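Sample A.
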Amino acid sequence: MQPGHGTHFSAGEDGPRGDVTNEDYVSALIEFENGARGTFETCRVIKGPGCEMAFEVNGTKGAVKWNFERMNEYELFLDSDEDPGFATVFANSKHPHYGAWYPGPTNSMGYEDLKVIEALTFAKSVASGEQGTPGFKEALQVAEVEAAMERSWSSGRREEVTGRI
């Protein structure tokens, strides 16, 4: 495909143009049911991270953060006077499914490995007749959060996640 023709990844000046029907950036300030606060943020056009699907949780006793771009490790901070700061924890056989693929720590599991694990989990769910998680219930919960965000854009105020889309 030639640049400027056909997709939202097109980069040419001579391609067809139309109205933009989706957002390039979205963020939300959130409050969880237990009172904890957070943010959700996504952007498909800013430069920098290539595929940073990440989370960071900070609390009074420590913190943890993970980023898809470095999916075989996470950073852990435990409140300690002896060793303040984050420590990197590398994937190893203590983590679910890892030992079935690799005998030693820090070997990088890849996207394909994770897809096989997902397929295994799905097949076990079908064989047992029990819905695995995440499933349709959790997908609906995500859609309910998105619906509350959309209502907030229109109302300009805080919107509750109602459980009704």
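Sample B, a different protein:
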Amino acid sequence: MRMQTVLATLVAVLISTAASHAQGHGVRVLISNGFKAVFDDLVPACEKSIGQKVTTQSGTSTSLIEKVNAGEAFDVAIMTTEAMESLGKAGKVATRTPLGRSGIGIGRRAGAKKPDIGNAEALKKTFLAAKSVTYAGDGASRPHIDKMMMTLGIADVMTKKTILEQGSVRAASRVANGDAELLITLVSEILPAPGVELVGPLPTQFQNYVSFAGATNAKSDNAAAGKSLISCLSGPSVAATLKAKGMEKQ
């Protein structure tokens, strides 16, 4: 009986230690740039709800996958649906939860003249008239942008005046400081960018949506808090925040 009491005490201590360790570093999140504006708006209430602080590392989904594969510690990953499916197949994350999606848009330097992008012909003229455009070379929207340029028949011309950046944050900075005239990326990445204003979404025939999902690390020592965080980010009350940040529920 005495031995059972000792074992029970040891188990309780181990569980307590593990919980203390998990809460010590809070909930570590790897988050794609495309969902960050929504996340930043919701996280204060979510921290209060789960009772733990949240720390983040952001970047393109491509760069974040590289971090995961290199052994980066995390409790929750929020990336494009394709990236999360890849991590799921590799056994890196648990069940994925859809969070929202964003379409592609055009941004300009704050205060600059607003160009016409209302239809294919207007968009083509705007691109050809622009001194330079920029977007993330490793971004989820790049394949759609490249296809659009091909469809418009201006791919070769635009290649010469396109500045490819590592991530939408750097691309947006190029427009804000005047290095590039137009930014092409997700609307959810344009709206929060300092010194940049949204011109509008791409015309319907060129529009594509990038979806985001969240999941806990399959080996996280703080999985319960991670799941609670994802629930907080995916509940019915977040629709207004998604809309305000250029996103919508899937």
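Observation for Sample B: Residues 2-101+211-244 form a domain with the D-Maltodextrin-Binding Protein; domain 2 fold (CATH 3.40.190.10).
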